[in-house]
Write the structure tokens for this entry.
Amino acid sequence: MSAEKFYITTPIYYVNDKPHIGHAYTTIAADILARYHRLLGDATFFLTGTDEHGQKVQKAAEAHGVTPQQQCDDTVVRFQELWRELEISNDKFIRTTEENHKEVVQEIMQELYDRDLIYRDEYKGFYCVPCERFFTAKDLDDQCCCPECGRETQEIKESNYFFRMSRYQQWLIEYIENHPDFIQPAFRANETLGFLKKPLGDLCVSRPKSRLSWGIELPFDRDYVCYVWFDALINYISGVGYRRNDEMFKKWWPASCHLIGKDILTTHTVYWPTMLKAMGLALPQTIMAHGWWLVGRTKMSKSFGNVVNPLDLIRKYGLDAFRYFLMAEMTLGQDASFTEEAFVARYNSDLANDLGNLVSRVIKMTLRCGSGVIPPPGRLTESELELNAAVDRAVAEMEQALKTLRINQGLEQVMNAVRAGNRYLEQTAPWTLAKNGETERLNTVLYYAAETLRKISILLDPVMPDKMTALRRALGLKNPEASRLDSLIRDEKVLSGLQMHDLDALFLRVKPEAPEATPAPSEPPGEGLISIDEFFTAQLKTAKVLAAEKVAGTDKLLKLQIQVGAEKRQLVAGVAQFYTPEAMIGKNIVIVANLKPAKIRGLASQGMLLAAKDGKNLKLLTIDGDIAAGSQVG
Ligand code: MSP
């Protein structure tokens, strides 16, 4: 683990609306990576900020009846406040309406214009008035309708300024092919290469003020503003002193990692590299595109009313648990589905049970066996070697995870080490050793149990900084050096002789709420439309209820045994307040047959039944007449 430089960025967020869990995820992921690198002793710079120009912001301002600048000033604080609540450790927060950023963008544009890398041209295109978007002929269908909304477009001619992006196409293809780490995950590099198979056009980098006035004015033509993406991408260099502070810029550029969502891949892997090439600057080391947080299988959107507000979860479950869940649950690169049930399940199993138990057992045991001073260890046995090997594996895996930016894999091994810690206490039974007066053996067990906690507290520190600081304090550690990652690979017996303190439960168990039996709320037409193929990803089948009984300890759930074709399955459904077990038996119902199996109140549930619900009533979807159980629905 050698000290290096690490410069990480998040996308800069549009200030047209308040932040949600998707924005929180990218920022927390970047924060966690920055914190790990600081723990490694790397010189680290973490940049985030807001993207304040362009049509989205102008439209939001119009809708709110304020000036665009006011819209920015009102909304930016919501991001800044949330980042404070999430304990984001950014070194700088950039706003693209800052004077310095605007001037740097103008200087770059002027230079590229002077070098004939930006030129003026007549642009013929098709304009969709409601969408306020331009399309070329090849984007449109036979009727020349808008590919976004299907309405008629108007053919218009407009003069605009273009960046000679096409010039760099071949160079970019070769660069991507020769630098396998440049775009991550690898399938996103292939996606970019696929995009580059078609001829790459020049990039329109201006908007006439008559159409859009909220932007950075072009220095060589006051009738135009800069295209918002050209302006926004430059934040990554204007934020670290480009053209203003050479020393700073040299120290940080090129960035180690631009963390982005998959929807902004092309702008980052095609526009941005060609812009940097034209400016004669090195390319960032890695562009890492993560997937999306979905709600169920649906995109999060205000119009669907399913936007997850991070603050609600933090208030309910605490900040560290929220940060842990986001990191552990999403495999970087792939989509993940957010549900509160999954949150509670992971919270209870990983944090309250595994980690919480280990912490409280070790502390209680050490306090009970004497004065709470951590004793020096005696001779090691097989059990300690096994435990230490599990912890070493977690350290190695986390080191690898940092290199490949896949923190969830590192966390999995840390949780394995936590479970190894619990097994160790069960095997070595310190309470029996204490009872039998086997002091030397007891000392060894208490020491290595505490040492495991120390190492785990460091490995998890970037993810759960508050709880892990509290844990180290309980172990009697004060020295900040004790939390450096490299102290994990030295075994210097730092704990021996330290006074342990008691600690309230780190994570209190929470009661899972009974699941809803109905699918997500209906979505308005338009944005939420799905294709027939998407619909058929859900396998709906008929099923016959063979047996039904109430689930103990809740008045909401029934446990059903159902017949689906030749197969018998168990299903747990939240229908007990509307149907008695007797009334369910014999019904021909409709289920989602290919839902991932889940555990509800400890009972396996293979699928979900469909029902209609209006707030007061719930009615099952049943089959009109006789048909074999297991028949396809759709
Ligand atoms: N302003 C541009 C980025 C310019 S960077 C030079 C932008 N802003 S955004 O606010 O719309 O989105 C910012 C980031 O949030 C994107 O990386 C996007 O992928 C991410 N997310 C928005 N919704 C998301 C989810 N539901 N899940 C995960 N991330 C998603 O694009």
Summary: The domain at 339-489 is CATH 1.10.730.10 (Isoleucyl-tRNA Synthetase; Domain 1).
